[in-house]
Amino acid sequence: STVLKCAGAVVAVMILIVGFRESALRGRAQAAEKGRWNQELKDARTRADEAVTKQQPRLLSGQQAEAIFQKLQAAVQNGKATVPVIVASRMMDAESFGYGRQILEAVQKSGWQIGHTELSTHTFSGVAVFFNPSGASEQCDIVRSAFTAAGIPFSSDYLDVKRTPIQTDNAVYVIVGNK
């Protein structure tokens, strides 16, 4: 009878230990599951924020416009604005056209000779600043430095100017692609 009581007590203790162990494992599993759900929620919020940002049109801030104006006006005053700046925006893209128009106004305000078209058929994202014909140009470097000063990211890659109706040799091109 004492042996049975001891055996029963041992079994009861073992059941408690197994129960505690199972409870601890279940708690860890629930914590891991909660962590996964929190991460998925965080990722979903990030994707939603990115989607909202993509829908917002690009805007040239007053500071950016002023930075472009100052850099380019200095070049005009120093006689270095010797070739036109052609600003082309993505065809049938209101957002691209609006952003291109803002850039155009900042360049135009500086007194630099400009050309503008909304008929670019380029299909890239962002802004490209290059010289036509391809190669280096002091004027292109000035325009690029204005964009850098304004904090506007751009590509320096040469693009086919035949995709715009204004095809001027010896010109700096600013092509505004889609967002």
Question: What's the helix and strand layout?
Answer:
Blueprint: H1 2-55, H2 62-77, E1 85-90, H3 94-109, E2 114-120, E3 127-132, H4 138-150, E4 171-176
Parallel strand pairs: 1-2, 1-4
Antiparallel strand pairs: 3-4
Concise summary:
This protein is an alpha/beta fold.
Explain this structure to me?
The model has no long low-confidence stretch (mean pLDDT 86). The protein has a 4-stranded mixed beta sheet with strand order 2-1-4-3, with helices on one face. It has helices spanning 2-55, 62-77, 94-109, 138-150, and strands at residues 85-90, 114-120, 127-132, 171-176. The chain has 179 residues and is an alpha/beta fold. β1, α3 and β2 form a beta-alpha-beta unit. The chain is rod-shaped and about 110 Å long.
Proportion of residues in helical segments: 55-70%
Order of helical and strand elements: HHEHEEHE
Q: State the end-to-end CA separation.
A: 84 Å
Could you name the ranges where pLDDT drops below 50 across 5 or more consecutive residues? Answer: none
What average pLDDT do the residues reach?
A: 86
Sheet-strand content, in percent, reads 5-15%
The secondary-structure class comes to alpha/beta
